[in-house]
Specification:
Layout lengths: L2 H4 L4 H51 L2 H5 L6 H5 L3 H26 L11 E5 L2 E5 L4 H37 L7 H8 L4 H27 L21 H7 L5 H37 L6 H13 L2 H11 L5 H13 L15 H28 L4 H9 L4 H29 L2 H7 L18 H10 L4 H25 L1 H4 L6
Antiparallel strand pairs: 1-2
Helix pairs in contact: 2-19, 5-6, 6-8, 8-19, 10-14, 10-16, 11-14, 12-17, 16-19, 18-19
Length: 504
């Protein structure tokens, strides 16, 4: 379709046309996504190959001290007069050797089995004493720590070799290696970004990456209520936890639960995202329309709604939705206005009918989510260039045409990343589901889950109630993959990513 034909379409036709093109191009974009991942893996492997080639080349071309740097950290730098850096390299090697000899090797050597000796109670004359065996949890944790430290030391090892060879070339060219003062000045000026980011990167590694690796590895073990250390051992089970999630024949309960909750999670995320977005946009347009009085008052009211802690609002709404809650009392009073003998209304809003409970959840989410959308939309509306509207009015465009040609495209362009964020956030929206319904209504068809549970609330129940840590970790990985793939594909398909200068 040519652009001249496209601009003549009404908003509904445009939406249908864009939706058709999106889904038509989706398989190609998914294929392109995985192709990009494959190319990245190939580049990574190729880079490793080049690294080993350079490793051998440096050894061949290096002098005796550079060659010794392959065994003794820093000796190449020390021999060329760069004492402070050589000493630091050497200290790093010594500390690593001491760490491995006194602590690390004892755990990493058991990493393959996660322990073989159980903690037991043995008779010691008239007394019973505990003979502690292996602790699978500590073995896994400290093994991961040791692997991370080993990788960090390997990076230092490579840096030591490169620095030794670089200083060798400098000396051969009649130059001196840089001094401590020069290096410090460089890190405070030319390489200040490295200095500035060093501490944050270290904290991210310690408090995010390390626990993340640990939790990923949990998904490949049988760590559950029956295998709790230190009393019991757990071991590796490979992809058993992942196959149990999809194996309908062999593990119908878990598989049925996962498939059912995954469908509801996607439906919930789509409905919660777009209902909030559309209705929030409509209210924001009404408030920001010229001629509307008390705009500051309306915005203040929505800010106040946001200021109330969400969990308080949801718990209050949970009580109001009970059989004897405020909603049923109100409906009873209304019914008795027309028929004084009318029976009490006892609708089980979230405890009986799964469909009703899901609809209620989506409606309540509007109440707690729309104020955020209104405020963000208001900020965008107030920043749309006025000259665009002036040009449209000069060309004879009416309110509808102005909205569909200027306001809506501009808002979609700006808020595309926000929409993706909201969608992923709703996939992981623990508060609304858990505080409002606790996953109910309950059902025996699902494994430790109710009809309104989404994957993240099921994960919580598996962890905190059933202690199925291995299954919960596997589900967490699956949810992460789903969110990452959907986010990247949708974002790269949006106009915000493809045409960054559209509204500049």
């Amino acid at each position: 379709m040519k652009y001249i034909d496209y601009v003549q379409l009404n908003p509904f036709q445009r939406f249908a046309y864009n939706a058709k093109n999106f889904f038509k191009a989706l398989p190609g974009r998914v294929a392109g996504f995985f192709k990009a991942i494959g190319n990245a893996i190939v580049k990574f492997i190729t880079g490793i190959g080049k690294g080993f080639a350079n490793y051998g080349k440096t050894f061949v071309n290096g002098d005796i001290m550079t060659k010794l740097s392959y065994l003794i950290f820093g000796i190449g730098d020390i021999s060329k007069g760069k004492y402070y850096k050589g000493v630091l390299f050497f200290v790093a090697e010594v500390l690593y050797i001491l760490y491995m000899a006194s602590f690390g090797w004892g755990y990493i050597s058991k990493f393959g089995t996660l322990g073989t000796v159980k903690t037991m109670q043995v008779e010691d004359g008239p007394f019973t004493k505990t003979v502690f065996g292996d602790n699978s949890m500590l073995i896994l944790l400290y093994s991961v720590l040791t692997i991370v430290i080993t990788i960090a030391v390997f990076v230092v090892y490579i840096a030591n070799i490169k620095d030794a060879y670089r200083n060798q070339l400098l000396v051969a060219a009649g130059k001196k290696p840089t001094s401590l003062r020069t290096d410090v000045k460089d890190f405070l000026d030319g390489k200040y970004h490295i200095t500035l980011l060093s501490f944050p990167v270290l904290m991210i590694g310690v408090f995010q990456i390390l626990p993340l690796i640990f939790m990923i590895l949990i998904a490949f073990t049988n760590y559950d209520a029956k295998h709790l250390p230190p009393g019991e051992l757990f071991t590796w089970v490979g992809f058993g936890n992942f196959t149990s999630v999809f194996d309908i024949a062999g593990s119908a309960t878990r598989a049925t639960t996962f498939i059912g909750l995954a469908k509801w999670t996607i439906i919930w995320a789509v409905c919660a995202t777009f209902t909030n977005y559309i209705l929030g946009m409509i209210v924001a347009l009404m408030i920001n329309k010229k001629g509307i009085k008390f705009k500051a008052l309306w915005r203040t009211l929505f800010v106040i709604a946001i200021a109330v802690p969400q969990f308080v609002s949801l718990l209050l709404m949970n009580q109001m939705l009970q059989v004897d809650g405020a909603f049923n009392v109100l409906l009873t009073d209304i019914a008795r206005l027309f028929d004084p003998s009318a029976a009490e209304v006892q609708i089980k809003w979230v405890a009986s009918d799964p469909t009703l409970a899901k609809v209620v959840v989506i409606i309540v989410n509007l109440w707690v989510g729309i104020p955020y959308t209104i405020l963000s939309m208001s900020g965008i509306l107030m920043n749309i260039p006025e000259d665009l509207y002036e040009s449209a009015r000069i060309d004879g465009a009416g309110p509808v045409k102005t909205f569909t040609s200027i306001t809506l495209p501009y808002m979609l362009f700006v808020t595309a990343p926000q929409l993706i964020t909201q969608f992923v956030g709703n996939i992981n929206n623990f508060n609304v589901i858990y505080l409002l319904t606790s996953g109910g209504p309950t059902t025996e068809q699902y494994y430790q889950a109710g009809h309104t549970d989404i994957l993240v609330t099921w994960l919580f129940k598996l962890t905190m109630t059933q202690q199925d840590y291995n299954l919960a970790a596997a589900i967490g990985i699956i949810v992460f993959i789903i969110c990452a793939v959907l986010s990247l594909i949708v974002f790269n398909s949006s106009k915000s990513a493809r045409d960054e200068e559209a509204f500049s």
